[in-house]
Design goal:
2 copies of one chain form a homodimer. The longest helix of chain A has 16 residues. The first copy, chain A, has a single domain, classed as Class I glutamine amidotransferase (GATase) domain (Rossmann fold, 3-Layer(aba) Sandwich), CATH 3.40.50.880. Chain A is globular, with a radius of gyration of 15 Å. By secondary structure, chain A is an alpha/beta fold. Chain A contains 7 helices and 12 strands. Chain A starts with a strand and ends with a strand. At the A-B interface, helix 1 and strand 4 of A face helix 1 and strand 4 of B.
Amino acid sequence: MDVAIVLFDGFDDLDAIGPFEVFDHARAAGADLSVGLYTLAPQAVVTSSHGLRIQPDGVLPPPSPEADATPGEEASAVIDSQDLLLVPGGGWSSRAEASVRTEVERGDLPAAIARFHDAGTTVASVCTGAMLLAAAGLTDGRPAVTHHSAIEDLEAAGAEVVDARVVDDGDLVTAGGITAGLDLALHLLDREFGSELARQVAGEMEYDPQGEVVTGSG
Amino acid sequence: MDVAIVLFDGFDDLDAIGPFEVFDHARAAGADLSVGLYTLAPQAVVTSSHGLRIQPDGVLPPPSPEADATPGEEASAVIDSQDLLLVPGGGWSSRAEASVRTEVERGDLPAAIARFHDAGTTVASVCTGAMLLAAAGLTDGRPAVTHHSAIEDLEAAGAEVVDARVVDDGDLVTAGGITAGLDLALHLLDREFGSELARQVAGEMEYDPQGEVVTGSG
């Protein structure tokens, strides 16, 4: 499983770094998994919403060649050799200058997210990253969740908002705010590699998973 | 309250970024607080234990001029205009090439930590950062905690290990592994600014504080 986390200026630090560390612990524990931090276009440094300056691993690689689902066709709910694309949130509700809102308005990132999803890639969001998935047309009529400050916006965008920490709708997996990204990543480890690995990583990180994971509309 | 988080190659990502984001949310909420990520010597990029490349904010500033406690004298348990120095862990137990262990062997960082503590700065650690505090001579005979993998090493180094998520011994505050850094930072917000701010930040980060905070030897 190749996990690509996409960064943009104004991303919320833990939305991205929490899942990044969860996935990297799984890799270190021997899971067949890679995880990287990417940008859509070449960018030397990405600045987070809290002022963290990160040098990304490079430009977002294309969807795996194995991910050859016909666009429009129902994508597989199981990640196999496909990539997982994880989208953090940040700045949607504070209307920061560099933010999810800016990226929604620019449109390039939502378009890329839609391309990945069409190619069969499972798409996940943490926090207000869900608003980027909504802009990509992924959440329309589907169960999803976001940071508490953006619940009404996500609903207004057509999603069927579920009151849960993580909502797993197969090829679309969304999490609540900030620290819910830890639970999203642990859930995906559980789903793809089994509960023993998820428990091992949570134990290593001394994290007691919080909240409820709801599958589909609950 | 000026919070300095000291980074070194091999630091554990969330040990540092978790508290960093907690403190920065407090700043954004209006608390009189600053937080920065620093290195001991000038360094353009710091690489974490999981491969995150961060551009630090600069070189660790000296202890606040207000922190003028005589070396050896009992430092105040209350942070006022003094700095808080937060030390992350990383790689102690895996014996990674760049790690807490390397920094303990090199000795510069423990010496700096001791200087800060002597000057009256409250020193905090997350995870195996406690082994750097031990190397600085701070934990001898004092209640402390660390990542579960290093409990015996911390005990062997002379600390009185307490089974808790966060151990607050006034000018020495230690936390368990990785995600316990969130609880340490929230506890320090509670201690220095009151429970309302701590609750507000935890709510914004959708984090339900975990484990027990023990004051002194419990």
